[in-house]
Each structure stands twice: as structure tokens, then as C-alpha cells.
Amino acid sequence: MPRRVRLACTVAEGSGIFGEDFAGAFKQFLDQANAVAPSKEAPFTKRLRSHFGADPSTLPIIGQDFDITRHPDLQMAIDTFLEHGDGRPVEVVGITAPQFQMDFGVGISQLLAPANTPMALSEGPVEHLDIPLEEGEVATCVQRGLFLVGGEAEKLALLVSRTRHGGLRLEVMAPAREAAEKLLAELRTTMRNRSLYRGRVLSLSQSSMGQLSVNFHQLPAIDRGQIVLPEGLLDRVERHTIGFSRHAEKLLAAGRHLKRGMLLHGPPGTGKTLTAMYLASLMSDRTVMLLKGRGFGLIEHSCAMARMLAPSIVILEDVDLVAEERTRPGASGCTPLLFELLNEMDGLAEDMDVIFLLTTNRPDLLEPALAARPGRVDQAIEIPLPDEGCRRRLFELYGEGLELQLDDMEPFIRRTEGASGAFIRELLRKSAVIAADESDGLVVTDKHLSDAIRELIVEGGDLTKSLLGARTTMGFSSG
Hints:
The chain is of the alpha/beta class.
């Protein structure tokens, strides 16, 4: 048996190749293999020596790991650096290796492994990955490749690769450590200032394998007139959000912090989410992070992205569901998600312009936690069921596009006491359907509205009223 094969068998039999000591045994095997076999220079060693005019094993390497969601930004930063490099030539070289080695991650030091060892890497095609952005945009990113940057200025080598745990790693080799550190700092600044995510509406999701991805959203166009609230209430909401943003520089100069949290609470269907979407669409210069559903388990990642892309706004709908969640999936302890959220809010720097906008139907579930951590949410605003004046405005708003031929709207405004805006919207929609069944046009009469009220309140029962945000005690009357 050749000596190299005997070495492999010894490592496998003596260390338990499928046990916890596999990594150590495998390294020992590689060390022994390297010691026994005569070294044969790797193709990357030749390339790097030719590129730098020096032995690459003596040059410094500086590396940094990034979240995989930052891949488009890293590629953009590298492209920007190369485009503004006064025409500096660049060559991108692909890397091939056994799959098990790719799974462990590839670094510049691995590129220098002798060609006749198990860790040897060879040149191959450059691997690219298309990452979808917004509205059909695609960011084409180098997934694994070596950038050789030449020219009259100091030469550089950049290696982009995936890490063992699904992250992203960038390594820079340069004749001097200072040059590598300077480039990394420049790339980080470009990624922060020119991020492809800045000013967008985003949410994070996670695959069954734990891979994070960024999702893009479009907010509906919401006019201020569509927000039907009691007199002065919307002004208060805008003052605590838009007003702070408008006077940010003055407030900072006066020593006032910019971070703030607002809680919109009230019965279902009263317009909390609509108000949140209106505010977000109004502040188009802000990055919007949406958190709901499965995104509750990604609070830490979402808040980190909000800080990175500030000024930003984090919208967490139905935060009472977070209060009911006992633990974060995958957590080793029992850290409630609500306290994780409050910790993230507490960890913001004073000058960090991030708005946390929370909505809930159950403020009673949140009050103990919020009271125990004062200042995280510094404004709670109730969005109540519409009063008589608001119901009148809602009938006018949701009646637009219909031909309302009513003898008198006032009886219907009185009969919908205790109804939410969502209920009134559905009432007008159902009235239009009933009218359409009777004629070709959409002429809505008193009878159509009465029939729709009966169908929703009497025939629909308490569950329908609850689903539409109306009080279950709301009854039917003839007016």
C-alpha cells in the first residue's frame, strides 16, 4: 500500500472520522500528507507572485465577514471601487475545489496550498449569482472569485467567497497591511452610503435551512384624506414622526435624541395599519422595515438592517402577537420576543434616526412590559372606533365611484354606531354588489344599504362583526 494511503487509513481508524474529532483528524492528515509529498506550487501561488512581484506567503491578508443579505451591497462597493480606480486593470479568476472544501469556506491562504495536496484549489469559471431586487431588478454578484487589481498604484487582491455557515467573506491581500485596511474601510463606507436597500420597503425571511433573504415591497399610494380619524389625532401622529424628521438637525444640535417609538392601539379595523402605511409612504427618504408573521423571529436582523440604513422606520404590526410568543425559534434560553424588541430599541445610539411604529389590538398585553422599560415607546395613541362625524366621512370616502341615491344618509350613520372603518367599507361594497344584481348600473339606494346591513349584522352574526372590527354588541335596527 502506498504510504499516502496508509496515512489516510490511520487517521480514519484512530480518530473516528465521523465523530467530533473529525476536523482535528482531518487537519492532522493534511499536515502529514503535506510533509510526505513533495510540494508542487499551486497555480494561484504563481498568479499572486506574478501579480505582486513578491512571495504571496509573506504578504498580509485582512478579512471581514458580512451577513449574506449584504451581498448585493458588497458587489456594488467592489464595482464602484474598480470603476473609480483611474482605469486600473482587473482580472477575475474563478476557483474550483471539492465540494467538502467549498462547504468549509475558501480563503486566500487556501489558494496557496501546494497543488498535489488534498487542499489544493485550481482555477475555473467565475461563479455568479443573480439576486433579485425591486421590480425586476437583478444584482449579479460574484459568488466565489479572486479579483487581481493592477495598475500603477499599489496592487491588490480581493477574494469573495461564502463562509461555512452561509455568510459572506471578503479577504484583501496587499503589499502593506495599511493598504488592505484602507480598502476594506472604503468598501464598508460605500456599502453604507450607497446601499441598494436604502430608501426601499423591505422585510426579511428565512428559509428552512436558515438562509436569510431580503424581500422588497411596494406601499399603496395613500392620500391624507383616506385617513379618517378624530380631529387633531392625525396631527399628533405626524408631529411625532414626520415632525421629528423635519427638525432632526435642530433637535440634535439642542441635545435631543432622535430615536423614538410610537404605539398605535385600538379595536381592529380602525385604520392603524393604514395610518402606518401612510406615514411610511410620506417619508419616502426613509428605509422601511416591515415585521410581521414569521418576521417576528428576525427582530435582531431586521433592527440591525434598520440601524445600518438609517434614517429608517420599523413597522411591527400586531405587536401583541410578539408579546404572546414565549421564545424565539432556535434560542437557547427563554428570551421573550417582546423583550428582544425592547432591547433592540434600547440599543440605539442617541443620534440614530430610527422610528419604531408598533400597532396592536391588545395594549393590555403590552403595558406591563412597556411600563417596566420606560422610554422605549414614548408615545401611545389610541385609534378609536369612528364617531358620528368620522362615520359620515367614511360613507363619503367609500361611496366614491358609486351613485348613491339615498333619501337620507343620517339614519345609516346612526345605525352603524360601534362599526369600524373596515365594516363601513365592506358595507358599501356589499351594497354595490346587491345593486349590481338588480340592475346594470351601480345605483345604491336606501334598500340596498339596509339589505347589506341585515346581511352583515344579522345573518353574518357576531363572528362577521368581529372580523370586520365592529362591536359584537352592535345590533340591527330599522333606523
